[in-house]
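Quick review question:
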């Protein structure tokens, strides 16, 4: 069926600083936790690092031209905190600010709306050395950093995101240790959860006093959860996964309280004494929109070895992506409709959705990726379905504009709609990029 999106629907694509910029030691940039982590033997696939990545720092104009050729209406990028404050505190590094000014001006010149994320996981190493997200002070430092960026770019950027996927920063960074800084400690993951949320609150405070124009929100990676069976123990396990992945972030932001079942659940690890008076008011200060990153839905079973606290996320059935993630567009509709029902009505954006597949350059020099076209087609339709059910969805950012550094998996996973030959830094628009160009032009999908 042919479908049309609402007028003005914001079609974009996204990247993040450490995944694409490279130039990690240039123009005064300090070290981040991802520099340290990726240079630690055994932490990333093939020992890959973001030292060069897509070299976007040096190829900015070419990449901007590529965005314009694609017809993008918006580009979501992140600012590397260690470019602005190399040690995470104090006066701003002008060369770092200048880079992002150039990026934002380049977008405006091409009529592409800049969407700026303040934090996409690259904490200055100096702040990690002092305790990182496990301590309150980091939230205060983040508020100061945000104020510097608002001051420099507040008039130029219409769309701001405080944090990208705080669940990943807290639970992969401090819970499993699969991400930087590589700590595996549930109590610390809870502290990090709170201090990240408080950092969001401190950025909102700074936003209020900055006089910056535009809209501000936060991006969460949310995953709907289904029980593996009718067994009530599976139902209880679903509540635990939903609680950790979704409500632990949504509830403080939109309801001003941590979910009671989660506070009880984590009682053996933490008494939540890190929550000080006024924190939840700061965290639940109004935002203009919610950014949703959707990749998968979880099927959850009880863990027979730990029926009270445990759970198992089952391996997805076919089809799956190169990440081994299940392809489930209906999960996106379900998620958007649930957000609309359970939380205050406000504009939503899909700030990331996309997929990794095994892309390669064919003998003619092209990259055909029909799986990605099918994936995006199905998810765009799922989003449209949610709009039809009354959800106020305003835009959609495809992850990612370029193949890039996929964190602990290095360059082994390709999410881009543009192929990157990492040896030469050549970009080749994949078939999905050409397809997306038509979607944008048509503001919808054909039969
Ligand atoms: O590459 C990441 C991105 O940085 C955050 N969201 C998920 C993407 C794919 O794993």
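Suggested answer, residue by residue:
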């Amino acid at each position: 069926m042919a479908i049309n999106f609402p007028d003005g629907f914001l079609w974009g694509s996204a990247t993040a600083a450490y995944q694409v910029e490279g130039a990690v030691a240039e123009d005064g940039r300090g070290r981040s936790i991802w520099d340290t982590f990726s240079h630690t033997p055994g932490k990333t696939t093939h020992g890959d690092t973001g030292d060069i990545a897509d070299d976007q720092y040096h190829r900015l104009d070419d990449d901007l031209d590529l965005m314009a050729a694609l017809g993008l209406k918006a580009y979501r990028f992140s600012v590397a905190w260690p470019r602005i404050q190399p040690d995470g505190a104090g006066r701003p590094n002008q060369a770092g600010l200048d880079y992002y000014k150039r990026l934002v001006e380049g977008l405006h010149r091409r009529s592409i709306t800049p969407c700026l994320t303040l934090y996409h996981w690259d904490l200055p190493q100096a702040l990690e050395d002092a305790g990182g997200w496990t301590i309150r002070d980091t939230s205060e430092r983040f508020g100061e950093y945000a104020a510097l960026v608002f001051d420099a770019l507040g008039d130029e950027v219409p769309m701001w995101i405080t944090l990208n996927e705080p669940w990943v920063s807290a639970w992969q960074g401090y819970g499993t240790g699969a991400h930087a800084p590589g700590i595996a400690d549930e109590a610390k993951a809870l502290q990090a959860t709170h201090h990240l949320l408080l950092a969001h609150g401190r950025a909102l405070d700074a936003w209020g006093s900055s006089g910056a124009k535009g809209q501000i929100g936060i991006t969460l990676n949310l995953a709907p959860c289904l029980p593996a069976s009718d067994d009530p123990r599976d139902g209880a396990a679903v509540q635990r996964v939903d609680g950790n992945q979704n409500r632990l972030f949504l509830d403080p932001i939109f309801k001003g309280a941590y979910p009671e079942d989660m506070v009880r659940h984590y009682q053996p690890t933490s008494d939540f004494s890190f929550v000080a008076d006024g924190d939840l008011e700061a965290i639940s200060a109004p935002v203009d929109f919610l950014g949703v990153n959707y990749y998968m839905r979880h099927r959850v079973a009880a863990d027979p070895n730990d029926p009270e606290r445990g759970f198992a996320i089952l391996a997805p059935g076919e089809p799956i992506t190169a990440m081994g993630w299940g392809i489930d567009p209906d999960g996106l509709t379900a998620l958007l409709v649930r957000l609309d029902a359970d939380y205050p009505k406000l504009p939503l954006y899909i700030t990331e959705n996309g997929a990794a597949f095994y892309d390669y350059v064919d003998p003619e020099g092209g990259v055909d990726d029909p799986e990605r076209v099918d994936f995006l087609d199905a998810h765009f339709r799922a989003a449209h379905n949610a709009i039809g059910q009354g959800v106020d969805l305003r835009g959609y950012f495809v992850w990612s504009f370029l193949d890039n550094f996929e964190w602990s998996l290095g360059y082994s996973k390709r999410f881009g709609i543009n192929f990157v030959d990492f040896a030469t830094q050549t970009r080749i628009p994949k078939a999905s990029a050409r397809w997306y160009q038509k979607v944008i032009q048509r503001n919808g999908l054909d039969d």
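Why it works: The chain has a mean pLDDT of 98. The domain at 3-445 is CATH 3.20.20.80 (TIM Barrel).
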